[in-house]
């Protein structure tokens, strides 16, 4: 049997600072993960962290990472990154005619990956993206926005504006009202717990179907392969049955959101 | 028996339950007659997952045979298999290369409640040994059959009768349906939390608990037994889903009686009573089963 | 094989069984142990990983031009002894000092103090100074023995537990579980603690008193007892002296007056006092909440007053239980690794020192030596030139750290013998790699005076050697000592040196240990002390007037800070912070602040905050909790990245010289 725990090493080709505490790293290899899936990235001597793929399948492998602790603060300074995966489930966009991706804060990378995948299959017209951050300076991928708006309906909002900002102000769930796609669209939600709760509520209120809402769950993850026991929510291990999971499957779980 | 033991010894490193200074532990043994019939102090799951091991290098393991493990512990390993066999390479390799010879109890042990989960005669085993006076009844799996060609095989209802006899001596607990009776907001969890000191014994000594922690130590990445009673078990960058000790104690019982039942259609407990014996404050999983949740 | 040994963490001294031939480093509690009856706490189960850490020291190191260089043992030992000898030659024996360790065995502590004294100095001390020196001082004065009077097992027979200044379930978890189980069975539990500890939550009565007002609280409890004639007159008459003077003093402490000091409502206090006196036997358990004060010794004597007054000594279930911090604080104190005592608590300036002059065939120093903190002062003023530290990390654990830093800087020679490159070791001239207690043989004496055998389980990494071996080599070279070839041979000498240990042998203390005194009269050891009389004849009741703590709040420093341990870590964290499960549970320094206080000053959980005292300042993270009363903050001292002892001043208890770790006026700066 293969040693699933042993990471292989990838060369990092580029590092971009997105915001004061968020950066994007690009590997010198192709992404074998689907949008929504994640890899375990490691810093030798420090540890591992689950990080979602931020680029489309088959493109250069990209991750966008927020510096919150020991591993995430050190990844950006590496030349070679330890990596294993991809793990978990992806966004099931192929099963739906229309998709609305809703991302809050550092939830945006898997939606970026989704966008690239759908573009690469020529289905950008079936996708709308709603993205919110706390302030304009917390927005990542600013340089890509121009490109994206050419092909999709991209709505962006911030909780608190500053002098330069002339876009939407307010919380992400409210953006859902600006969607043009039908109420039969699948809604893919990812972000901080409170944002997800409110987005799901809003989507249901607006008449989107519960069994077409997919959420991405964040749990402490260590193995990524359903054996270490850290990531359970009820009978599911999020690293296997998630992180992308149909809302109707878990809606009654009392430990769904923090 | 001794001859089969010798034959096994030539192919395997042999271990057995033995008494040392009054505690039954596992150790190397040189003869079948050295193996204790007493239930060991702990479920010897370190044969399958070491308390602490480097996961960056997957060494080829030697073949090991462990005599004197009790049915409740072995059954625990079959339950663990359902979650991790074939996925964790370290566990899987050791599981394949370890022969467990389980001793079937003829009398209920102190505190054990295995009859609630079927009793000591297992239908999955490598080598199941039932002693009747000087006589040994042996059931052996195909994989190890070659060591027991000479043995006369028991036929008829011997084992079933034995099992029924045993189970009638040890009244099973009303475990059936516990996944529906158990209550999320029960007072029990708070009561337990006021006493529990988060020692982890109930997880470390359990034959079914498989959870572990991964961490780096220098140039090694280590896997170490973990405990869901601890708050760091679930702390993540998004927060902690189980901040309260009562919530964590509940997780343990819910995993055993609700979640595992839902995902694998069986309870994750074998009635070995280890978690009760080693809990320094006397928290008793049997109470979780028998408690009157409706009466709260 | 399986090996029986003793947990390396707290003073409870749980016995553990470690199978050595099976894979995977299994640890279980020893079921036959009267101490832990097969149970362990998380530190026992998951805390031993430090032993296998990649960061263990493996080779002797000498600093050359600011860098450590690996050298051979011969080179390290020769350099150590030559430099020590040179300093002694030039400046006299009192220019060197030794810091022993409550983490090391009795044999090692005995050997280190012997080396110091044979060289000609009583400059030998260890961390007992910072935890239980008031216990030794206080209880030796009042009862004649500075140790727990009963056994952990005897707590099963208590009807009432009075726990003061001890967060037992976190600091001595297995002893804590006795109390939890007792209380769940309906026994009385009275907890006096400023924080709402786990025991306080389940207590019959929680006296949440102001830090530093212990004497007032205890005096007031005794006042109520006398008021209601609940004292044990027979016991007082037959077994104590000094009652009249005590009564006079206590008269002043009516609960109504004392409420203004302690903040305890009189009704509650009365109820507690009645239970303590009436529902006998009552056991009194205390820890650093009592001792780490400028009035530490007085606090201890007040506890002793209470036990004597209520006749709660000498029978199972009664007694005084100072809960020892380190696994071997009792032993290292018994061994005389303290600047004012030779082994067996023989005062350095008494005639009885002759015993050791005969035993060691030398004339010995009789001048009291320097205590831990005095050593660093003496280094600052230049009179002390060399310190030899075994297994301690004063740069984290000592009060007034900046003085420690200055002191160390000023030394000509700093030798550190340790298992890891601690902050202190980093500053050393010579570092000697030692083995852990899982890699060596010897004995530990736990908090209930039980002498227990420690055994070799694992191989040591690299060239690390047992502390006793290293000391033996140094002793030979510097002190001209005869050579000991095994820990057993050192123990044989301890039996001669300390009458209370005379009956113990490596054979008869196996497997479950024996409690001292163990001698001809008590060949099986002694579970309960003072059953018929006290070693000093009658127990002394000592009137103790209440004096307020030295550190008080004012407009600027408006919070009282207390310091201590949490469940997951141990002292400077050298061991526990290398056990990943423990480190994960408590990865970063923090200050506990009452939820309301936090709201008032506008801080959130996890927010960075600066704590300033009159002595220094540190940065740490906020943790809000309802378990701590308003106006008080708690900071654990395990974290070398944020050393709380920078904030602790140098006010010492004049009797035992313990610094006041428990009451420091601070302010919080957002
Ligand atoms: C499926 C999944 C996908 C993720 N994708 C991204 C992403 O694309 N970009 C991004 O910036 N972040 C992502 N995260 C979050 C990221 O994994 C954590 O921020 C990271 O593990 C923190 O590691 P650290 O060592 O830097 O922090 P630490 O110093 O270890 O701790 C900081 C905080 O992170 C928590 N934490 C530690 N280990 C884990 C763990 N294994 N899993 C979860 N939380 C942990 C700690 O409890 C603590 O609260 C994702 C998480 C999950 C579960
Ligand atoms: S939960 Fe307790 S009784 Fe059940 S298998 Fe585990 S240790 Fe045994
Ligand atoms: S009970 Fe807890 S430790 Fe045991 S397997 Fe379940 S989650 Fe893991
Ligand atoms: S064994 Fe008991 S005290 Fe220890 S963690 Fe489990 S429930 Fe808590
Ligand atoms: S991360 Fe290990 S089980 Fe999910």
What's this model, at a glance?
The complex is a heterotrimer of chains A (258), B (296) and C (670). By secondary structure, chain A is an alpha/beta fold.
Describe this structure in words.
The complex is a heterotrimer of chains A (258), B (296) and C (670). By secondary structure, chain A is of the alpha/beta class. Helices cover 19% and strands 33% of the residues of chain A. In chain A, the strands form three sheets. A seven-stranded mixed beta sheet of chain A has the order 10-9-8-7-11-12-15, sandwiched between helices. A six-stranded antiparallel beta sheet of chain A has the order 4-3-6-1-2-5, with no helix packed on it. Chain A has a two-stranded antiparallel sheet with strand order 13-14. In chain A, a hairpin with a 2-residue loop joins strand 1 (8-19) and strand 2. By secondary structure, chain B is α/β, with parallel strands linked by helices. Chain B folds into two domains: 2-106 and 120-169, no CATH class; 178-290, no CATH class. Chain B contains ten helices and eleven strands. Chain B has helices at 2-11, 71-84, 89-97, 158-169, 178-181, 187-195, 201-204, 245-264, 274-277, 285-290; strands spanning 13-20, 23-28, 52-54, 64-70, 98-104, 127-132, 135-140, 212-217, 220-225, 235-236, 239-240. In chain B, a hairpin with a 2-residue loop joins strand 10 and strand 11 (239-240). Chain B is globular. With 670 residues, chain C is α/β, with parallel strands linked by helices. Chains in contact: A-B, B-C. Chains B and C meet through strand 2, strand 8 and strand 9 of B and strand 3, helix 1, helix 7, helix 8 and helix 24 of C. Bound molecules: flavin-adenine dinucleotide, iron/sulfur cluster (SF4) (3 copies) and FE2/S2 (inorganic) cluster (FES). FE2/S2 (inorganic) cluster (FES) binds next to loops of chain A. One iron/sulfur cluster (SF4) binds at residues 196-202, 229, 279-281, 283 of chain B.
């Amino acid at each position: 049997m293969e040693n699933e725990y042993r990471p292989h090493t990838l060369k990092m080709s580029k590092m971009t600072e997105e915001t004061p505490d968020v950066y994007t790293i690009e590997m010198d290899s192709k992404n074998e993960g689907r949008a929504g899936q994640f890899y375990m990235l490691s810093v030798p001597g420090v540890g591992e962290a689950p990080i979602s793929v931020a680029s489309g399948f088959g493109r250069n492998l990209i991750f966008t990472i927020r510096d919150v602790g020991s591993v995430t603060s050190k990844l950006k300074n590496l030349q070679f990154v330890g990596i294993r995966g991809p793990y978990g489930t992806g966004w099931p966009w192929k099963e739906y005619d229309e998709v609305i991706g809703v991302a809050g804060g550092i939830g945006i990378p898997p939606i970026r990956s989704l966008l690239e995948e759908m573009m690469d299959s020529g289905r950008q017209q079936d996708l709308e993206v709603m993205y919110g951050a706390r302030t304009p300076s917390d927005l990542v991928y600013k340089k890509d926005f121009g490109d994206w708006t050419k092909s999709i309906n991209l709505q962006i909002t911030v909780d608190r504006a500053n002098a330069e900002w002339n876009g939407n102000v307010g919380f992400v769930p409210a953006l859902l009202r600006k969607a043009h796609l039908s109420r039969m669209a699948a809604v893919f939600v990812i972000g901080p717990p409170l944002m997800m709760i409110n987005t799901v509520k809003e989507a249901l209120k607006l008449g989107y179907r519960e069994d077409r809402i997919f959420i991405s769950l964040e749990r402490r993850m260590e193995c990524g392969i359903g054996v270490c026991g850290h990531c359970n929510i009820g009978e599911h291990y999020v690293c296997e049955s998630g992180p992308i999971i149909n809302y109707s499957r878990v809606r009654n779980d009392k430990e769904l959101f923090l | 028996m001794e001859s089969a033991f010798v034959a096994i010894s030539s192919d395997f490193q042999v271990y057995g339950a033995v008494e040392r200074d009054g505690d039954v532990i596992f150790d190397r043994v040189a003869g079948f007659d050295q193996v204790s019939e007493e239930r060991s102090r702990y479920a010897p799951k370190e044969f399958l997952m070491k308390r602490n091991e480097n996961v960056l290098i997957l060494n080829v393991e030697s073949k090991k045979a462990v005599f004197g493990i009790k049915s409740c512990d072995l059954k625990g390993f079959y339950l663990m298999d359902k979650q991790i066999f074939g996925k964790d390479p370290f566990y899987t390799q050791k599981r394949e290369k370890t022969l467990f010879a389980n001793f079937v109890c003829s009398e209920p042990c102190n505190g054990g409640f295995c009859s609630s989960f079927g009793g000591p005669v297992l239908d999955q085993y490598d080598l199941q040994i039932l002693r009747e006076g000087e006589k040994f009844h042996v059931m052996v799996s195909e994989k190890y059959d070659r060591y027991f060609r000479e043995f006369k095989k028991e036929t008829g209802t011997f084992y079933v009768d034995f099992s029924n006899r045993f189970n009638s001596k040890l009244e099973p607990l009303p475990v059936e349906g516990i996944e529906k009776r158990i209550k999320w907001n029960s007072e029990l969890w708070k009561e337990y939390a006021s006493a529990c000191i988060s020692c982890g014994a109930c997880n470390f000594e359990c034959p079914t608990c498989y959870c572990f922690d991964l961490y780096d130590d220098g140039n090694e990445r280590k896997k170490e037994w973990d405990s869901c009673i601890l708050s760091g078990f679930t702390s993540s960058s998004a927060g902690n889903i189980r901040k309260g000790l009562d919530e964590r104690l509940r997780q343990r019982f819910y995993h055993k009686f609700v979640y595992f039942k839902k995902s694998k259609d069986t309870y994750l407990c074998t009635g070995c009573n280890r978690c009760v014996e080693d809990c320094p404050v006397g928290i008793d999983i049997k109470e979780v089963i028998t408690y009157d949740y409706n009466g709260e | 094989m399986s090996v029986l040994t003793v947990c390396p963490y707290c003073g409870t001294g749980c016995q553990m069984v470690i199978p050595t031939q099976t894979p995977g480093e299994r640890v279980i509690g020893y079921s036959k142990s009267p101490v832990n009856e097969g149970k362990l706490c998380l530190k026992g189960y998951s805390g031993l990983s430090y032993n296998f850490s990649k960061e263990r020291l493996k080779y002797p190191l000498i600093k050359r031009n600011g860098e450590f260089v690996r050298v051979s043992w011969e080179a390290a030992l020769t350099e150590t002894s030559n430099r020590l000898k040179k300093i002694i030659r030039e400046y006299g024996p009192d220019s060197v000092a030794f810091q022993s360790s409550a983490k090391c065995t009795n044999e090692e502590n005995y050997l280190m103090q012997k080396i110091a004294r044979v060289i000609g100095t009583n400059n030998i001390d260890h961390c007992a100074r910072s935890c239980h020196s008031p216990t030794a001082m206080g209880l030796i004065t009042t009862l004649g023995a500075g140790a727990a009077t009963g056994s952990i097992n005897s707590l099963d027979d208590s009807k009432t537990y009075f726990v003061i200044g001890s967060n037992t379930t976190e600091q001595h978890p297995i002893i804590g579980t006795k109390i939890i189980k007792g209380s769940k069975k309906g026994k009385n539990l009275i907890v006096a603690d400023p924080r709402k500890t786990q025991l306080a939550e389940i207590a019959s009565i929680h006296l949440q008193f102001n830090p530093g007002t212990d004497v007032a609280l205890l005096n007031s409890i005794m006042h109520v007892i006398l008021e209601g004639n609940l004292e044990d007159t027979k016991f007082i008459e037959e077994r104590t002296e000094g009652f009249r003077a005590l009564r006079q003093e206590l008269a002043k402490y009516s609960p109504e007056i004392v409420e203004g000091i302690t903040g305890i409502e009189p009704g509650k206090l009365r109820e507690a006092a009645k239970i303590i006196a009436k529902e006998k036997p009552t056991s009194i358990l205390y820890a650093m909440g009592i001792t780490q004060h400028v009035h530490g010794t007085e606090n201890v004597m007040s506890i002793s007053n209470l036990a004597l007054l209520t006749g709660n000594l000498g029978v199972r279930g009664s007694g005084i239980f100072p809960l020892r911090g380190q696994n071997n604080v009792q032993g290292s104190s018994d061994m005389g690794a303290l600047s004012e005592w030779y082994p067996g608590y023989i005062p350095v300036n008494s005639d009885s020192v002759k015993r050791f002059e005969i035993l060691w065939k030398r004339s010995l120093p009789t001048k009291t030596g320097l205590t831990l903190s005095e050593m660093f002062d003496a280094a600052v003023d230049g009179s002390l030139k060399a310190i030899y530290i075994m297994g301690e990390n004063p740069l984290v654990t000592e009060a007034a750290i900046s003085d420690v830093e200055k002191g160390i800087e000023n030394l000509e020679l700093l030798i550190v013998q340790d298992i890891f490159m601690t902050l202190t070791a980093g500053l050393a001239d010579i570092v000697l790699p030692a083995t852990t207690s899982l890699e060596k043989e010897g004995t530990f004496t736990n908090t209930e005076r039980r002498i227990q055998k420690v055994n070799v389980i694992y191989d040591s990494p690299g060239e690390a050697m047992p502390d006793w071996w290293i000391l033996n080599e140094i002793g030979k070279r510097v002190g001209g000592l005869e050579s000991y070839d095994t820990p057993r041979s050192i123990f044989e000498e301890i039996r001669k040196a300390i009458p209370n240990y005379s009956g113990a042998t490596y054979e008869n203390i196996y497997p479950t240990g024996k409690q001292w005194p163990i001698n001809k009269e008590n060949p099986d050891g002694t579970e309960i002390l003072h059953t018929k009389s006290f070693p000093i004849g009658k127990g002394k009741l000592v009137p103790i007037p209440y004096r307020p703590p030295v550190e008080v709040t004012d407009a600027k420093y408006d919070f009282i800070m207390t310091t201590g341990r949490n469940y997951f870590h141990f002292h400077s964290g050298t061991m526990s912070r290398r056990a990943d499960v423990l480190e994960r549970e408590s990865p970063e320094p923090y200050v506990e602040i009452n939820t309301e206080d936090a709201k008032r000053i506008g801080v959130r959980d996890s927010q960075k905050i600066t704590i300033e005292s009159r002595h220094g300042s540190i940065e740490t993270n906020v943790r809000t909790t309802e378990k701590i009363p308003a106006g008080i903050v708690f900071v654990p001292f395990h974290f070398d990245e944020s050393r709380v002892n920078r904030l602790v001043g140098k006010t010492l208890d004049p009797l035992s010289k313990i610094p006041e770790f428990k009451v420091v006026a601070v302010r919080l700066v957002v």
